């Protein structure tokens, strides 16, 4: 008998919420700064976005159907854009970590 993956995946998404809060707490100025810290923060934002999309992909279809208000396709598009573009606009990624990911967590009650 297979274990239901949803609780584990939601726990992982909640952890991403904590990571987003930490990243956003550093501020947009630090995030976009042309410094080593800014580069590290942008890399962290990239990784957070990728993790959120991968976890979202792993959620079962019936769970996604129960949460039809979530833009599942948009989450995957963000990840695809990030994975296949050499230079992604920092403003787009900042919006993802400050708006899109928190909205996903809120919609899922996390």
Question: What's this model, at a glance?
Answer:
The protein has 110 residues and is an all-alpha fold. It contains 6 helices and no strands.
Description:
With 110 residues, the protein is mainly alpha-helical. It has 6 helices and no strands.
Strand-helix topology:
Blueprint: H1 6-25, H2 28-32, H3 36-58, H4 61-66, H5 72-84, H6 90-107
Mean pLDDT over the full residue set:
90
**Largest sheet at a glance?**
none
Structurally, the number of domains stands at: 1
User: How many strands?
Assistant: 0
The structural class is mainly alpha
In terms of per-residue confidence, which ranges show pLDDT below 50 for 5 or more consecutive residues? Answer: none
What portion of residues belong to β-strands? under 5%
CA-atom Rg in angstroms: 14 Å
State the share of residues found in helices, binned by percent.
over 70%
What's the helix count?
6
Shape: elongated
Euclidean distance between termini CA atoms: 27 Å
Order of helices and strands: HHHHHH
Name a few traits of the molecule.
mainly alpha; about 110 residues
